[in-house]
Amino acid sequence: MAGRGMRIATLGWKDESHTPETWRSDIVEGLRALGHRVTYTVPFNQATRERAKEVARDADLVLWFKDDGFDGDYGFLRSLKERGTPSMGVHLDLFHDVPRRDLTIGQSAWWHCEYVLTADGGQRNWGDINHVWLPPAFGERFLGMADPDLDEYPERVVFVGTPSERIHGEHRSALIDWAAAEFGDDFKHWGSRGAHKVWGWDLNRLYASAELVIGDSAEAPYYWSDRVPRTLGRGGILAHPEVPGMREMGFNEDNMILYPRGEYDAIAEQFNALTDAKKRRMRKAAVDTVRKQHTWKVRFKTTFEELGLA
User: Residue 280: pLDDT band by 50, 70, 90 thresholds?
Assistant: First the structure.
């Protein structure tokens, strides 16, 4: 049974007691909003072939959030295909050209799902993997602007997240260093290497209070992290390197600041040229763009239609 009202079993889900606001939960929320019956069945790192077979017995679709398991044994997936039940592996990472991560491609059972969906969308050699580009999206529970809280979040410019040179190269650390020098006390780094982490509506308030959010993603064409829809969907004014594919997906000067990677002075030039009226328009356009094109409800509706599952 394909289409509206599918019974979807998920593998590799994570509860939010230790990692609030996961994209996995947001995807489940979007699927339920489409009318599908989704069960959280096997937690992350607890999948076994026997348990996966059990929970998938009555499913119309098995959705496997990246969780290798099974030690490369993917006979379970073959049995699903033989009975006509599609399997779909989902993850938002960049894989190609990332040291160590690129060596994992195709090496575990997860990669042998009937469809493998990742945010790694460039022209790649995926071999026998049936890869589908899945640009990151946003859940609807935190979609929209909050009221600013300038007492709690007084800085004009912020970065939220953690730099990792193995994944992001030197750009992210250089961006943070530039912002600290350019904006001084008006800049603050929130995240595991800066101030404490911020989630949920607190993050909405942070983005509503800041005049500018700087950010980046690992460098690759047709790839950006979910910080793009997660920031814009909260009405943040985001400065992000321009990546091939972004404009095709509706990201442009109406809703964000795009700059050539590494040319940080272009951020300041564009930011300083913004009037208060333009900032208000950008915030509204950012939320509207995500609501119309980049929620998980919209993303999976489109994906299911393209794959003939709707």
Answer: very high
